[in-house]
Amino acid sequence: MAVATEYKTNLKPVWCPGCGDFGVLAAFTQAFSALGLRKENIVIVTGIGCSSRIAGYLNVYGFNSIHGRTLPIATGVKIANPHLTVIAAGGDGDAYSIGIGHIPHAARRNIDITYLVMDNEIYGLTKGQQSPTSPLGIYSSSTPLGTYERPLNTLEMLLSFNATFVAQAFSGDTKHLVELIIKAIKHKGFSFINCISPCPTYRGGMQIFKDIRAKLRYLDEEERDVSEKELAYRIARTKDYIPIGVIYQEEVDEYERVLEALREKSGAKKEIGLEEVLSTFIA
Ligand code: SF4
């Protein structure tokens, strides 16, 4: 079994000192190690943004793709080789703005991908414009008078898309994030983690970590039925605290199993060799 550091490349992250994304990088390596995953069996697909650079820092197969198209590419990878552990990752701009149209479809298909969004509530790479999750009233480089568009409630959104695993994490608590990533990867089907991953450069310096930590409430999955949807909605909608942990989970056949059943029903062959494919074109 590889130790956590073996899942890191030699590239030095170009993130700002104190960026929350360092915690996510550390958590991924620890989770992969704890699960005993072979590096060559993991693929991480990312979009564009500060957080999407993570594909270059993990010593697994990586695809730093185009803006907002993380999920379609990850879906293609998983369908082509269902034996791989496929991770999709990116930031709140990549996921919830340009890429938002892909989320409901990945969720309703229940494809076995883990999607971790590093949500810093700002566009960091392009120097601090408001994002779809920026809280009302904050000053950003695009909102000098304060933001005036209401932020998305992404947890509620994913619940409404019938995602079968919905969780929230905080990159300032790596140990807890490791546990959540392990649960998400083990989940059969689409697993979503909104990871609050602060941007100290454009969101108030290191104080932002303290402010978030003061509002966290850890959810105890043993104390409640995580498949209770109404309760999950209430947790997702709360303004009293920031919920951390698994908010909702249910067991539904994953997409790959559905496709396999369809294949069997159709009588199609399971695997077709290249020569056989070519022979259909050559008389
Ligand atoms: Fe991290 Fe913000 Fe710096 Fe980007 S701009 S690397 S999100 S701290």
Mean pLDDT: 95
Number of helices: 11
Q: What proportion of the residues form beta strands (DSSP E)?
A: 15-25%
Strand order of the largest sheet: 2-1-3-4-6-5-8-7
Give start-end ranges of low-pLDDT stretches.
Answer: none
Quaternary state, please? single chain
Class inferred from helices and paired strands: alpha/beta
Helix content: 25-40%
- Estimate the global geometry from the Cα principal axes: globular
The secondary-structure element order is HEHEHEHHEHEHEHEHEHH
The radius of gyration over CA amounts to 19 Å
- CA(first)-CA(last) distance: 49 Å
Major sheet attributes: 8 strands, mixed
Bound molecule kinds, no repeats: iron/sulfur cluster
Number of strands: 8
Structure description:
This protein has helices spanning 21-35, 54-57, 70-80, 92-98, 103-109, 154-160, 174-186, 207-215, 229-237, 255-266, 274-279, and strands at 42-46, 61-64, 85-91, 113-119, 165-170, 191-196, 216-218, 242-249. It has 283 residues and is an alpha/beta fold. An 8-stranded mixed sheet has the order 2-1-3-4-6-5-8-7, sandwiched between helices. Strand 1, helix 2 and strand 2 form a beta-alpha-beta unit. The protein is globular, with a radius of gyration of 19 Å. It starts with 20 loop residues before the first helix and ends with a helix.
